[in-house]
Design goal:
Length: 163
Amino acid sequence: MLKRFSLLFPLFLAFFCVNIASAKTFTYLCKGGDVTYSIAKQKEDFFLVVTFSTDETRFMSDPKLLIRTFKNEVISLSGRSIGDGAKSFGVAVGNIVVPISKVVSTAQFPMSIDQLEKLNDGIKKIRIEVSPVNHEKEYKKDKFGAKLFKQYQIMRAQKDEEF
C-alpha cells in the first residue's frame, strides 16, 4: 500500500501543480522562496489555494490564515494541507552544476461568498500558520486582493459545461 502511495503521490502533485500554474495566480518572493495565491472552484465551493515553494516552509495539517482588508475587516480562514513535495534543479556555476532543492507545500482554505467579496476591499495584511515560523506580510496598497476577487467573479460566471 505504501509503495503504491509513493508512486502515485508524485503524479498527483505534478497534476495539481500544473493545474494551479495554469490558473491565474499571484506570486511574491518571501524568505527562501516564493508564495503563490489563487482561487479554485470545486463543484459550488470556492477555495483560496496557497502554495509555498521555499527552503523549508511547510503547512501544518490544519493551517489558519488571517487577512486584514483595507477597511480593517478581518477574514479568518481554517484550511487543510493538500500536498507536500519537493522540486530539485541545478544551477551552473562555471563547470559545476550546483543542486538546489525547494520544499513545495500547498493548502486550501474554503471561503464563503461574503469573504470572497471582502477581498475586493484589498489585502492590507496576511498571516499564515506554517512551520517552522509563521508567515506574515503587510502592504501599503492592495497588490492582489482585487485580482483574486476578479478571478472569483470569472469562475462564478463560468458554467461547468464550458471547459
